[in-house]
Amino acid sequence: MPAEETLWIVLKDGCRLAARLWLPEGEGPVPAVLEYLPYRRRDRHRGDDAILHPGLAAAGYAAIRVDMRGSGDSDGTMDDEYTPQERADANEVIAWIAAQPWCSGAVGLIGLSWSAFNALQIAATRPPALKAIVTTCGSDDRFADDMHYMGGALLNDNLQYGSTLFTWLAPPPDPEIVGERWRAMWLDRMNAISEPPAARWMRHADRDAYWQSGSVCEDYARIEVPVLAVGGWADGYTNAVHRLLSHLSGPRKGVIGPGGHAYSHVATPGPGFDFIGLAVRWFDRWMKGVDNGVEAEPMLTAWMQDYEPPRPQYERRAGRWIAEAHWPSANVETRTFNLAAGALRAEAGAPFAASVKSPATVGLASGEWCPYGWGPDMPGDQREDDAGSACFDTAPLDEPVEVLGRPEVKLVLTVDRPEAVLALRLNAVAPDGTSARVTYGLINLAHRDGFAHGKPLVPGSHIEVRVPLKVTGYRVPAGHRLRLAVSTQYWPLTMPLPVAATATIEQCSLALPVRRGEGAEAPDLGAPWSPPPLETDVIEAPARGRLAITHEVATGRATVEVVRNLGAIRIRETGLELRALGSETYSTVRDDPGEASSFAFRKAEFIRGDWQARIETRSTLTATATGWRLHAEYDAYDHGERIFAREWTIETPRAGMSGDGV
């Protein structure tokens, strides 16, 4: 189905936004579905658009992809994610769409990742024409549940994604679309970058007004339109599905498959399902008034994962579809396990003290914080990480246990340093000793009293802390043991603090959400389907997620190298050659986390005829006594000639630490 290549939306301030429009054939005014994001509609995101939007158009919707201000071929500049300007522009875009002769006046929002976040954020602003949203792999809480921090601990994804956004904040527009002004627009975009995004996010180490802006969990009542929330157990953002179902008051539905960070009809690991069909049914009910019964189906449908030996990559996860009529569900009960010396059991045990000071290399089996399913990014066998942790095991289970929901750990402990991070993993241990991670959680103990204000620890003082683990759906077989593993390091998933703290646990309990019986009947979600993929010529095959781990026995240094070579393709419809390369190198020393560093490299290149533009960024993160130091470089080339270069070295204090120490 042909699309209109470039449609211009002129905002009140004169800024022009570039859009791509797919219309159904032979129909009058129809509802419109908008995806609104900065991931360029003509190149970077063109392949993803091809396998979604024509499917919506074929189902009778006007499907429209808009490049945000400062991205793609749109006017203006962009310096950050999820800004008030982004939401204000979106309201104008929605009003513009609703007024077009091909639109019935009803508009829906659909999105993955960035566009999943802003679908929720825009819904909370209540644009009159907006009637329903579908949000996939997004979050309602920008601080507690995004790739910057987890439990207040700084994730290395902050640097990884920060480097990606750093690179893609200011690529050039396409001269075929904007003409000779492309180079001036490019320079304007680059000059508008005030600092590397990763530095800004590190500067906000507490949950302050910066993070509250755009976090719809601040006031769920602001969202009144029906919400379909979709996620995957392998994805980094699954917690939001359960919170949205628990806190929204209007029509809502949640579906969680086994996949990573992608739309569910193409996500791996599988099995996938007919995501486009599900989205169309949702929009049909709330935008066309079709009485299709979707609202009567179970509120939550999820893939209950079966235990299988852990490996870094799966094509398909073992399990079955389950459903709960309502969420929270009366079919899920909390079982409490208490820690004793090396044991995890239902009854309270005798007083004990378990100390743990983990090697800085604990976490090598963590996998990625947000797997995409492209390569070896899933958690592996946990035994090596368990060896550097304090572990507490149940007896072999008499019967299977189905965990569905968000476990929580409560601890009373002391720490011998003014700052420390704890990682808590719930593992399923097979009779042969294989240890598979069921779920996990992190806590920066500077945030032991909440995320609003971090404060240093008083060494030796008793503290009490609650740590929610990630939501999960996992069936642990009979004969396996449950293990709670506690460590003071989790590298390279986190950027480690420069001190090796010892934590002494004196009390601990695990609240486990256990599902009983079979619940509601799971609806048939259908087989995955998508429109034909984008036609491209592969110039260089991608090598996504190539991973190398090295250990130097003499020095104790460990290094993890990840290569994200997206290769090179030529898009046939535009003749554009697109090249993209990314890599990260994480390094630490077993007995000295102060030696840790994280490095990220990104390159993006655009070639067509006599047009050749390239961007390269380099970012290095290390720790100081009380803060983080980021050194970043940005270089841009026109036909191999460097036309822009900027360099930053930025230091920011860590949560609970001042620039003068403690």
Explain how this protein is built.
- This protein is of the alpha+beta class and 662 residues long.
- 15% of the residues lie in helices and 39% in strands.
- The strands form five sheets. Strands 1, 2, 3, 4, 5, 6, 9, 10, 11, 12, 17 and 22 form a twelve-stranded mixed β-sheet that branches. Strands 25, 26, 27, 28, 29, 30, 31 and 32 form an eight-stranded antiparallel β-sheet that branches. Strands 13, 14, 15, 18, 21 and 24 form a six-stranded antiparallel β-sheet that branches.
- β5, α4 and β6 form a beta-alpha-beta unit.
- α5 crosses α8 (197-203).
- The longest helix has 15 residues, at 84-98.
Oligomer: single chain
Number of helices: 12
Strand % is: 35-45%
Shape: globular
Query: What share of residues is helical?
Result: 10-25%
Which secondary-structure class do the elements indicate? alpha+beta
Estimate the mean pLDDT confidence. 95
| Sheet of most strands | 12 strands, mixed
Instruction: Tell me the distance between the termini.
Output: 63 Å
| Unreliable spans | none
The strand count comes to 32
Q: Radius of gyration from the CA trace? A: 25 Å
Keywords:
662 residues; alpha+beta; 8-stranded antiparallel β-sheet; globular
SSE map:
Elements: E1 3-10, E2 16-22, E3 30-37, H1 46-50, H2 53-58, E4 62-67, H3 84-98, E5 103-112, H4 114-123, E6 130-136, E7 149-150, E8 153-154, H5 157-168, H6 175-178, H7 182-191, H8 197-203, H9 209-212, E9 227-232, H10 239-247, E10 252-257, H11 275-287, E11 300-306, E12 319-324, E13 332-340, E14 343-345, E15 354-356, H12 383-387, E16 390-393, E17 401-405, E18 408-415, E19 421-429, E20 435-444, E21 463-468, E22 472-476, E23 481-487, E24 503-515, E25 536-540, E26 543-552, E27 557-571, E28 576-589, E29 592-608, E30 611-623, E31 627-638, E32 641-653
Parallel strand pairs: 3-4, 3-5, 5-6, 6-9, 9-10, 10-11, 11-22
Antiparallel strand pairs: 1-2, 2-4, 7-8, 11-12, 13-14, 13-24, 15-24, 16-23, 17-22, 18-21, 18-24, 19-20, 19-23, 25-27, 26-27, 27-28, 28-29, 29-30, 30-31, 31-32
Helix pairs in contact: 5-8
